[in-house]
Design brief:
The protein is α/β, with parallel strands linked by helices. The protein folds into three domains: 14-68, Alpha-Beta Plaits; 72-354, 3-Layer(aba) Sandwich (Rossmann fold); 384-435, Electron transport complex subunit B, putative Fe-S cluster (3-methyladenine DNA Glycosylase II, Chain A, domain 3, Orthogonal Bundle), CATH 1.10.15.40. 38% of the residues lie in helices and 10% in strands. The chain has helices spanning 26-30, 56-60, 103-112, 121-139, 155-164, 178-195, 212-218, 234-246, 259-262, 284-295, 324-338, 346-354, 376-395, 409-417, 427-435; strands at residues 14-16, 36-37, 45-46, 66-68, 71-72, 84-89, 117-119, 149-150, 202-208, 230-233, 278-282, 304-308. The strands form four sheets. A five-stranded mixed β-sheet has the order 5-10-9-6-7, sandwiched between helices. The protein has a three-stranded parallel β-sheet with strand order 8-12-11, covered by helices on one side. Helix 3 (103-112) links the parallel strand 6 and strand 7 (117-119). It is globular.
Length: 440
């Protein structure tokens, strides 16, 4: 009998600075997966097993006590100088600069920073738009087709679905995201072929507006492993990039997309390139509300929904520099300048699609996600646990105050059953029993 491998510890880039945190519970109440506790009025603690790295706690904290690391090192640590480094950037980066600085200037600035190869992800965004249309056309022909389909682009949405709405995993198309396609092609096609490098000597870096894209590199839900090797925050390279942009004097064209590919940084940008019945939803609470509607079957008449948990889309990510509304203004001007249309050729993309160029992920269940196969005994234990939770809940005053250290009464009841809290942690229950001379 072979010994099973121990489960790998969850990786997260959001952490609490205990020197600043005063235990105010605002982050605990805001967390969509109830991953934060504040016991005995002390500092907030994040349960890494539950955290989905949405960054909502960072946004809500009035003391800026919750922070995220600015970069990740993957597959063997930092990129050595003898490695060939390719870089792709989130579209949100292109909206972080003043008028007069065009996407091509920013890509050239990245090249001046020392990256060996710079890939224009906005062009791949437009290719992904065509691929989604083709997939939906195929999907409609199936007898068991489910609608609406849900965009796989935002990793927070994918993790949120895996944790809270697992029945909707089948609504996510089994297509590689544009950032993963860029990384794969940088390694397998462009760099290896045109620069003569071995694939193992190529490292791909993604410049990201949020920590969740760092996590999906190390723990991809639908893939065995990511094609991206490292991710760095927009804010951590912004000043250096700005100086390099000012020094750009090359006459090289690296940007090839139209306005459709550029628009992906803001909410509605992805679906702007689709000739389908679509919705664009942004903001965490709105995302949860509409996922609940999808789960109830209320939106089955919709073809495709673009969800972004950050306000106004990726422009509202915690790693951005410019105010999100200013960035949206900048992006809209760029879209008008480059035209509200795609520049990719439909027939070319269709040939790639037919060859499986966009596929490469599990169509239903995550390979490294939080879901596990449940046995009959697991289900029975869960039912028994839920009965105990309901019994505890009947004893509680349902004030939903969070003073106990749990975000609400139902979660506190679960914590009690799991042995993570005790009944007398509820101040109302404790006061009532002490007044009556009873013990809990």
């Amino acid at each position: 009998m072979t010994e099973s491998k121990p489960l790998q510890e969850p990786i997260h880039y959001v952490h609490v600075d205990e020197k600043i945190c005063n235990g105010c519970v605002l982050c605990m109440k805001a967390c969509p997966v109830k991953a934060i506790r504040v016991r005995e009025g002390k500092v907030a603690r994040i349960d890494d097993a539950k955290c989905i790295d949405c960054g909502e706690c960072m946004r809500i904290c009035p003391r800026s006590a919750i922070k995220a690391l600015m970069g990740t090192k993957h597959k063997g640590g930092s990129v050595p100088r003898d490695y060939f480094t390719a870089v792709s950037a989130s579209t949100a980066l292109l909206a972080q600069f003043d008028e007069g600085i065009l996407p091509n200037d920013i890509l050239l600035g990245l090249k001046r920073m020392g990256f060996s190869y710079v890939h224009d992800q906005t062009y791949t965004n437009e290719m992904f738009n065509v691929a989604i249309e083709l997939f939906i056309k195929e999907h409609r022909e199936k007898d068991d087709a489910v609608f609406p389909l849900i965009s796989p682009i935002c990793p927070v949405v994918v993790k949120l679905i895996a944790h809270r709405f697992p029945s909707l995993l089948k609504n996510i198309p089994p297509l590689l995201t544009s950032r993963e396609i860029v990384a794969r092609e940088s390694k397998q096609r462009f760099v290896a072929r045109y620069y003569g490098c071995e694939e193992e000597n190529i490292k791909v870096v993604h410049i990201t507006p949020c920590p969740s894209k760092m996590i999906c590199i190390k723990e991809p839900i639908f893939q065995g492993s990511s094609y991206i090797d490292e991710a760095i925050a927009i804010s951590s390279i912004y000043e250096t990039l700005k100086k390099n942009i000012q020094s750009v004097d090359e006459d090289i064209v690296l940007h090839h997309a139209g306005g459709i590919g550029l628009g992906w940084g803001m909410s509605g940008g992805e679906i702007a390139g689709l000739d389908l019945n679509c919705l664009a939803i942004s903001g965490l609470q709105e995302t949860i509300k509409y996922l609940e509607k999808v789960e109830m079957g209320l939106l089955s008449h919709i073809d495709y929904i673009e969800f972004r948990t950050c306000p106004v889309g990726c422009l509202g990510g915690p790693y951005t520099v410019v105010d999100k509304y200013r960035a949206r203004h900048n992006l809209r001007k760029l879209i008008r300048m480059f035209g509200e249309e795609k520049r990719v050729k439909y027939d070319y993309v269709k040939k790639l699609y037919d060859k499986g160029w966009f596929h490469g992920v599990s169509p239903t269940l995550p390979m490294n996600g939080p879901l596990k196969q449940s046995s009959i005994s697991d289900i029975s234990a869960a039912i028994e646990k839920q009965k105990k939770v309901q019994q505890v809940l009947k004893c509680l005053p349902r004030k939903e105050c969070g003073v106990c250290g749990s975000p609400d009464c139902p979660t506190f009841a679960e914590d009690v059953v799991e042995g993570k809290a005790i009944l007398k942690d509820c101040i109302f229950l404790r006061n009532a029993t002490e007044k009556n001379g009873k013990t809990i």
